[in-house]
Amino acid sequence: MLKGHVSKRKTSSHPTDLYGSIPPTCLPIMYHPEYNITFMGLEKLHPFDAGKWGKVIRFLKEEGFLTDADIVEAREATEEDLLVVHTKRYLNKLKWSVVVATITEIPPVLFLPNFLVQRKVLRPLRTQTGGTIMAGKLAVERGWAINVGGGFHHCSADRGGGFCAYADITLAIKFLFERVEGIAKATIIDLDAHQGNGHERDFLEDRRVFIMDVYNCHIYPGDGHAKRAIRRKVELDWGTEDSEYLQKVELHCEGSLNELRPDIIVYNAGTDILDGDPLGGLSISPQGIVKRDEIVFRAAKRRGIPILMVTSGGYQKRTARIIADSILNLSQQGLIGGGASQSEGAPLRSSHMESSSGSAGSTSVRV
């Protein structure tokens, strides 16, 4: 726990294993081998690399950044945990294989018995969701946290899609609001190539949550209703490259955090902006992605705001290496701890109860 900061718990609505204490020797990096989806090759029918999370950890181990003992083992979110955001009706719909096949965009899943779908497809996604919720609390305590998975930004309380079955970003924020004293405002910085329509629908009428979204405006989901929740909207054109992209990310990241000073930042760090991504349609280099993440973490650290990063989309085999390289760069730049002895992370301001005001307006930039 950081000096001067006390993470007090509010009265909880239900008991959960996701907010248990974490050994101080662990880095605030969430992972579990269960993250990876492997079953009869079905995962290969979607462009998403369903084993990328394990590859990120392997690369970080090979570089000597961490060992198994440094990793926080993510726990599966239970139905009670999920009901903090999701409707019972939506969770019941996931008991139909045809619904899961539609959400994951893997048609053959509809032919599988649902007990197999639960075990081989949904359990990994529930475990990643649990990892994001756990990372929220840990970010407040340590200054930063990274869930090597998660970032299911197309899922809302009552609707999934785009390979997103659980609304982990919304859940992490709602858990913090309900359970951690002093966490009253959040900013979502969504830099995946796709619009984050799931969390946008969930927080459409919630002024405690400021959403900045930078995305290719020509691709899925094109959710006009959800766009009303975006307070700082940056719509990119096909093939946007590093120079223009990084300039806009820095400008609007600084602008967002100046407009509303949050108690927590949730950073959706999708790598589908990478040049050549079959779904993203942008042209950002690996070095550009590393620099992008550095810009966001530097803005958070300079202001003493805890930051939670999730990895979200990325549809090329090389994205795992880029995510690992980015985490290594954040450590080299002193923006995150690089070992158990440094795991306290960035210093936080003394009180999360500090008041700040934000504009109710929305800033929109079309590129």
From TrEMBL:
Output the Gene3D superfamilies linked to this UniProt entry: Histone deacetylase domain
EC number(s): the record gives 3.5.1.98
Q: Listed GO molecular functions?
A: DNA-binding transcription factor binding; histone deacetylase activity, hydrolytic mechanism
Catalysed reactions, semicolon-separated: N(6)-acetyl-L-lysyl-[histone] + H2O = L-lysyl-[histone] + acetate
What CDD domains does this protein map onto?
HDAC_classIV
**What are the subcellular locations of this protein?**
Nucleus
Q: Cite the residue spans of the region called Disordered.
A: 339-367
In this chain the Histone deacetylase domain maps to 46-327
Q: A Gene Ontology CC term for this entry?
A: histone deacetylase complex
UniProt xrefs under InterPro entries = HDAC_classIV, HDACs, His_deacetylse_dom, His_deacetylse_dom_sf, Ureohydrolase_dom_sf
Instruction: Identify the Pfam families for this entry.
Output: Hist_deacetyl (PF00850)
Keywords, sorted A to Z: Chromatin regulator, Hydrolase, Nucleus, Repressor, Transcription, Transcription regulation
Biased composition of type Low complexity is found at 353-367
Single biological process term from Gene Ontology:
epigenetic regulation of gene expression
Q: State its role.
A: Responsible for the deacetylation of lysine residues on the N-terminal part of the core histones (H2A, H2B, H3 and H4). Histone deacetylation gives a tag for epigenetic repression and plays an important role in transcriptional regulation, cell cycle progression and developmental events. Histone deacetylases act via the formation of large multiprotein complexes.
In the record, the note on similarity to other proteins reads:
Belongs to the histone deacetylase family.
Quaternary context:
Interacts with HDAC6.
Q: Which protein are we looking at?
A: Histone deacetylase 11
Organism, as annotated: Oryzias melastigma (Marine medaka)
